[in-house]
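Could you help me review a protein record that somebody else here produced? This is what I was given.
***
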Amino acid sequence: MYNLLHERWIPVKRKTAEKPEYISPSQITDEMATNPIIALAAPRPDFNGALIQFLIGLVQTACPPKDESEWRKKFRSPPSSEELKAAFEQYATAFNLDGDGPRFMQDLDLNLSAIDPKEKEKIEFPIEELILEMPGDITKREDRDFFVKRGTAKNICQDCCAAALYTLQAHAPSGGPGYRVSLRGGSPLITIVLGRTLWETVWLNIVDNKTFFQYGNTSKNADSDKFPWMGHTRTSENDEKTTFQDANGAQMFWGMPWRIKILFEQTQKHEVCDICGRPADSIINTFYRKNYGVNYKGGWYHTLTPYFEARNSDDGSLIPFESELNGISYRNWLGLIQYNPNEKIRPAKVVHIFKEERKEDLKGLGLSSTRLWAFGYKMKQRKALCWNDSTMPIITLNSELSQDYEAVIFQLITSAEMIILKLRKCIRNALFSQKSKVKVNLSIVDSQFWQDTESNFYQTINELKIALQQQKSLDAREIRSKWLNLLKNEALSRFDQYSQSDQIISTTNPCRIMDARQDLLKFLNWDKKLYNMLDLQKPEKSAKISDKKRKIPEHVIS
């Protein structure tokens, strides 16, 4: 029997090792003093995302700290591998990947031997469809698997199968009628506070019992309340709902919206896994899938995901923040690291706790700086549109200065958003007449703008941090002014690039381009709202150029 608590199936990287090695979950604290494990090393980035959630969920479920005092103690002195193994063992039966009894994240009630052979064929699928980015049945029937080809993961090992299974259930999209989404929706964004070692990363994202008890029904303590595959499946043929009051809070890490059963077959020879390239005793090429699994609704929140406040909601309900098509950049600082008042986005609970309760203690424990890891699929039903995976620094100040610091960061990012909005409008006006109804996708402009100014943003907020710490209000004003000038130059460069770009249209109108550029310049130099946003003095407006005397710049007609 293949048990995920006993097998060495998690690929990791040690501080001084050149090649990855495989460990069991309890070994994450092995050799902490001499050669600690610093990161996961899965063959796919989405598997890394799944494995870190698996480890955090396992520790949160099996051995959470009772309070912040115990949390600090175990951050300073991590539990041994033997201690973790003993804590995990109480749930060992829930982590059998194969066998005749309950199987990890697989439907206990899906009895294949009792299903009519013809019906069984309808729910049988190649194992590659367990992997989110692989083409689904409809895509293959219509021969639309242009970029990610079918048949590239025909045979996978048990290690990769477990990672793929967790990835699917944790990020479950809508896969057709009755296929339920994960308890965070179909495209959840996950945020992880990173430490210097794998143990620190896991422990930084654990909350104490008092906090965690708010996320479920504390009276629901049976194994099936935490691990839904340990009992009869709460199916949803009649749209039955499973709310946070129907389960233990731990089920946020172990949700089972899709009804799945893996077919395991022992190989006669050591075949190679199509994903990791390692030989395996058991190669998997088939699984079974049914709809109407657990329908998670009503009050579910996850400690690793940001949420935004639902508009026009009387009960203050929160909606999970989803991964986006245009990637993750510093524009997402608002919402991922600090509260976004514009869109009412709250950072994940673990990020909030790190900033508000732990950052000062961690400095005394040797962790002076850290980063945020954000990742997730953007899905359109069963189709994966993109995988986002990025990190950003978490820069914090003490409580006395943090309010002013975050207020200025809000100004910096919001001013960039205002300029991008105007820039897109001006580029469109340069390319098309005002009456034109042509639809054009200018997302490339946004992406390049954010990318080109990202390093300057982090340099700017670091300078701001120093200025506030030294109580230099004049320097803070100069920093905001410098930031505005940088944004102005970037906006004009991107306008000049895309207003004449054959990437969008093949013809240009010099007069229309000049008018749009003048409009952009007017906004950048004299817009009252822009300058007010940055608490800057608006410069005196220079004399207008009349239409009769205007000259078309050479770069427009060259």
